[in-house]
Amino acid sequence: MSGEALSAPRRPRVGLALGSGSARGWAHIGVIQALEDMGIRPDVVAGTSIGALVGAVYVSGQLQAFSDWVTKLTFRDVLGFLDIGFSGGVVKGEKLFNFFSEQHQNPDIESLSQRFATVATDMKMGREVWIQQGSVLDAARASCALPGLFSPFKHEGRWMLDGGLVNPVPVSVCRALGAELVIAVNLNGQLIGRHLTRYDTGSQDLEESDGETPDSENSEPSVWGRVMDYFSSSSDENVEPTPGLFDVIGASVNIMQDRITRSRMAGDPAELNLVPMLEDYAIMDFHRAAQAIEEGRRLVEANRERIEWLLGRL
């Protein structure tokens, strides 16, 4: 044996696949923060829809400030960002992303120290598009155009729809960008048949859903509940309402993404699949960030030994 010191084993290139899932996506923040606490900084980050937005903020070095901001959001704040219109979607998204561009840095993807890509869907061709160039916020916006809810976004001359239509948890993107160990955050598990449970029992449950009593002056009913009531086809409190517009969108998206996720991940599974238990979150519950972030942290901590084993094995 030579006197030369043995080199330390090379750590595998870690990829983080951040899935689609609307308000449940705040769990991505907790996952990333807990991984960083373990000393794990992913080499590759790929995001779809809300995963693209959180991923964009993370790779541009602004996750902590972003986390501080979203945990202070109230349902009134969320409503304030909804530029309602019916041209391609109920929400244009311009007000929200203009705010992001004013409050956050918006570097080009090419300048980042981590590999980063978002997934969008070409509206004309139906093809999966991986955006790996240009500003991080434009890449995120192109991935966040949920059909019926957010208007499509024009990127490089093509109209883009939500990436969750084709690749809800972008494990394949991480692989293509060189990841050897992929940690996937799948927000679409445990959802089928549950998206309406917070509203089926009436307005009282709406107001108690955040742990407040109906008489509390600080009670903040779900944004989704307020808007759902507006779009419901029944106004009679004594009659169970038929599914409203957002019920149909929410159920359809959940079913579609669950089926696509199962199919894609069966063919290309991640080494670790994290599934936040946030089945009571409705599609617009963005004001409930604290609980989702904590769930993301809990998942990583619960899988700490497995993560360390995977890092040492590969």
TrEMBL record:
<dbReference type="InterPro" id="IPR002641">
    <property type="entry name" value="PNPLA_dom"/>
</dbReference>
<feature type="active site" description="Proton acceptor">
    <location>
        <position position="162"/>
    </location>
</feature>
<feature type="short sequence motif" description="GXSXG">
    <location>
        <begin position="47"/>
        <end position="51"/>
    </location>
</feature>
<keyword id="KW-0443">Lipid metabolism</keyword>
<feature type="region of interest" description="Disordered">
    <location>
        <begin position="202"/>
        <end position="222"/>
    </location>
</feature>
<dbReference type="GO" id="GO:0016787">
    <property type="term" value="F:hydrolase activity"/>
</dbReference>
<feature type="active site" description="Nucleophile">
    <location>
        <position position="49"/>
    </location>
</feature>
<dbReference type="GO" id="GO:0016042">
    <property type="term" value="P:lipid catabolic process"/>
</dbReference>
<feature type="short sequence motif" description="DGA/G">
    <location>
        <begin position="162"/>
        <end position="164"/>
    </location>
</feature>
<dbReference type="InterPro" id="IPR016035">
    <property type="entry name" value="Acyl_Trfase/lysoPLipase"/>
</dbReference>
<feature type="domain" description="PNPLA">
    <location>
        <begin position="16"/>
        <end position="175"/>
    </location>
</feature>
<protein>
    <submittedName>
        <fullName>Phospholipase, patatin family protein</fullName>
    </submittedName>
</protein>
<feature type="compositionally biased region" description="Acidic residues">
    <location>
        <begin position="205"/>
        <end position="218"/>
    </location>
</feature>
<dbReference type="InterPro" id="IPR050301">
    <property type="entry name" value="NTE"/>
</dbReference>
<keyword id="KW-0378">Hydrolase</keyword>
<dbReference type="Pfam" id="PF01734">
    <property type="entry name" value="Patatin"/>
</dbReference>
<keyword id="KW-0442">Lipid degradation</keyword>
